[in-house]
Specification:
With 492 residues, this protein is of the alpha/beta class. It has three domains: 62 residues, OB fold (Dihydrolipoamide Acetyltransferase, E2P); 243 residues, 3-Layer(aba) Sandwich (Rossmann fold), CATH 3.40.50; 119 residues, OB fold (Dihydrolipoamide Acetyltransferase, E2P), CATH 2.40.50. Helices cover 25% and strands 25% of the residues. Strands 6-20-21-19-18-15-16-17 form an eight-stranded mixed sheet, sandwiched between helices. Strand 7 and strand 8 form a beta hairpin. Helix 9 runs parallel beside helix 10. The radius of gyration is 25 Å and the shape is flat. 46% of the residues are buried.
Length: 492
């Protein structure tokens, strides 16, 4: 009888190199060139530093590493505030830049935005908007925490993933979650460890309302027993949290106590608006920054009482409802029928039903014909707000570039500089739209996530030249350094 013999994997001998760091990439890693001229992305390195790094991965055009020694420190380097922040195995992946001074983080993100607009879109804003700042710590009102029962680490872990890993960080505290959620981290471990379904509970979604009301959504792959339910509800009473269960997809999430179904809300005090939401809904994680962002967007649109406004990718009405307090009529367009129904309810709750309309429509198949129909339906459109997901709004940008029925101003709110640049390229190079201003909003401090806003106004249409050609030209003078499938975990 033949026996298969498993060869023992050889331990790889660590390799170390010393380099000078030139800049940061879009993931917050230091960028340098080694002695062979190959680009190196180094976790934990900052511009201007001389560091020794350990090589983690080598590809034909680039390699990745992590700092093991800093020989010349940047003046912008600071001591991380969180004990779980780091670059080695086991460090938490919730933050990427706690070692970089807070104002320097903002300057870096502003540069990322401007560089991306130029290199991808061949566009430059006429002016740079001052960055919007908010709280740097305890700002995160929404998070998805992974749960694992790991005997080797002493039992149940609840937290973010480790850097570039599927493992769960051994978090005992956190500097970016709200303080009331931080206080629950260790008790949550004890709670899950006491449940019969602890091996069938992969995540807990956390959502905190504007009044600090908190919901915990337990993703359950098996129905909790009566004893489990008693423990969950007792935990909720002790820690002031609404308990929700999610047996399948997000649409199955429900409050264990029916009276908690509509308890969460987000206030936009400048406009006298309160938006109810469910813990699995998309809402901005940074409430203070969101309120400032909405105020800026409304002011940048220059909305007058007689104006008609279209809000694309409106969601629950984060922009629609504030805009309705300033304009004659606002139409919110969103892909989800469920969100549209709840946005209508939100308008009614805030006394804005007569000034708003909500439509469910797939915006990823939008055409110039759709735009013309919307224009006729509204009797003209004076202003447009666009707030798409990371995929951007290229179809909508194409329709606005092609049409002669143009609003006087567009404000585009983006969570991805690359798709913002692509869409602005189409609007500018094909439609004659001018990028009057752009800037960043530090929605996710200590991460590489760049939230931004751009203001566009129509100008004479240029001789038609596809934006794709200009993007191809732009790519030719930018080294292809960061492959799309090699990026670190995003903040969202």
């Amino acid at each position: 009888m033949r026996r298969a013999v498993m060869a023992k994997r050889k331990e790889k001998t660590p390799e170390y190199f010393t380099v000078d760091v030139d800049r940061l990439d879009q993931e917050g890693r230091g960028v340098a060139r080694n002695d062979e001229g190959k680009v190196v992305f180094i976790e934990g390195a900052l511009p201007g530093e001389r560091v020794t790094y350990e090589r983690l991965r080598s590809k034909p055009s680039y390699e990745k590493g992590r700092v093991v020694a800093v020989h010349r420190e940047s003046v912008q380097r600071v001591k991380p505030a969180c004990p779980h922040f780091g670059i080695g195995p086991g460090s938490c992946g919730g933050c990427a830049m706690q070692h970089l001074e807070a104002n320097a983080q903002v300057a870096y993100k502003q540069k990322v935005l401007m560089d991306t607009l130029w290199h991808i879109g061949r566009v430059k804003p006429e002016s740079v908007l001052p960055a919007i700042h908010g709280p740097a710590w305890n700002y995160r009102h929404r998070a998805r925490l992974t749960v694992r029962d790991v005997a080797k680490k002493g039992g149940v872990l609840v937290g973010f993933h480790e850097k570039a890993s599927s493992y769960v960080a051994d978090m005992t505290t956190c500097k970016i979650l709200t303080k009331n959620v931080v206080a629950m981290l260790m008790p949550m471990r004890e709670l899950v460890a006491s449940l019969s379904i602890r091996q069938r509970l992969p995540q807990i979604e956390v959502a905190v309302g504007g009044d600090s009301r908190t919901a915990l959504v337990f993703r359950v792959l098996e129905a909790p027993t009566d004893d489990d339910m008693e423990k969950l509800l007792a935990f909720g009473r002790e820690h002031g949290a609404d308990i929700w269960l999610q047996p399948k997809g997000p649409e199955t999430a429900h409050a264990v106590l029916p009276e908690n179904e509509h308890a969460l809300g987000l206030s936009l005090s400048e406009f006298g608006v309160r938006i109810s939401f469910k813990p699995t809904d998309f809402t901005q994680v940074n409430h203070a920054l969101n309120e400032t962002m909405v105020g800026r967007a409304v002011r940048l649109l220059h909305v007058e009482p007689e104006h008609k406004v279209a809000d694309f990718f409106c969601g629950l009405g984060n922009f629609t409802l504030p805009l309705a307090t300033k304009a004659a009529k606002v139409i919110g367009i969103e892909g989800s029928e469920g969100l549209v129904a709840r946005a209508r309810q939100g308008a009614a709750d805030n006394g804005l039903a007569d000034k708003t309309e909500f439509v469910a429509r797939n915006l990823f198949t939008w055409t110039e014909k759709d735009w013309d129909e919307l224009w006729d339906r509204m009797g003209g459109i004076d202003r447009v707000l666009i707030d798409p997901p990371r995929e951007g709004a290229i179809e909508l940008a194409g329709a606005l570039a092609a049409t002669d029925r143009r609003p006087a101003r567009i404000v585009y709110v983006s969570c991805n500089p690359a798709t913002l640049a692509r869409d602005c390229a189409k609007l500018h190079h094909e439609g004659g739209w001018h990028i009057r201003a752009a800037g960043i909003m530090n929605m996710f401090p200590h991460t590489g996530h760049v939230e931004s806003i751009a203001v566009l106004e129509p100008g004479p249409k240029p001789e038609r030249r596809p934006a794709e050609d200009l993007q191809t030209e732009a790519a030719q003078d930018v080294p292809a350094e960061t492959p799309a499938n090699e990026t670190a975990e995003t903040a969202e």
